[in-house]
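Problem 12. The chain below contains 189 residues. Write out its predicted structure in C-alpha cell notation.
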Amino acid sequence: MRRTIVVSSLLLFLFTFALQSFAQDASKAPEPSQASEMAAHYYHLEFVVQELSKEGKPTNTRTYTTTVSTDSHGMTSIRTNSKIPIVVSETSTNNASSPTVSFQYQDVGVNIDAMHAREIGRQLSVDITANITSVAENLDARLHEPIIRQNKWQAVVLIPIGKEAVVFTSDALDSKGSMQLAVTATPMQ
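Solution.
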C-alpha cells in the first residue's frame, strides 16, 4: 500500500511537471499571426510616374510593375533606358576629310530599385530608390550636347496595402509643373 502511494505521488508529480513545461513552451510559441509574418510573402508593386502641369493635371503617365518578397534578401529592379551619345573628343587629321569623333553613352530613362520589404500591420515598408532622367529641350542653339534632366529619390516608405500612395514628388526644373512617383502594393496569392 505504501508503495502504491509513493508510486502514485511520483506519477502525479511527473504529470504536474510535464503540464507546467508544456504550458511554458506553448506561451513561447509564436501565435498564428506572428508565424505568418515570419514566412515570406510576395507583393505585386505598381509604380506610376506622372509629369504634372502647373495646374496639377497629368501631362505624361508611365506605369512599371514588378514583384517583391518580404524575405530578408528580397530586391527587385526596373531598368527602362535609352542610350544617348555624348561627344567626348573630336580629333582631326590632315589626311581625313572629317574629324574622328569619340562618344560616351549616357543611360536616360527610369531606374527603380525596391528592397527590404516587410509587413507592418496592413502596410508594407519598402526601401525605394528611383532615378528618372530625360533629355530636356535644348533652347540654346549654341549647345550641341543634350541637356539631361534628373529626378532622384531614395527613402524607406510605408505603403498601405492595396491602396495607391504618392511616395515622392518634386518640382520640374524647366517648367512650373512637377513630377511624382506613386506605388501600389497588392498581395499575390
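Discussion. The chain has two domains: 1-30, 37-187. Students who got a different answer should revisit the alignment rule from Section 12.3.
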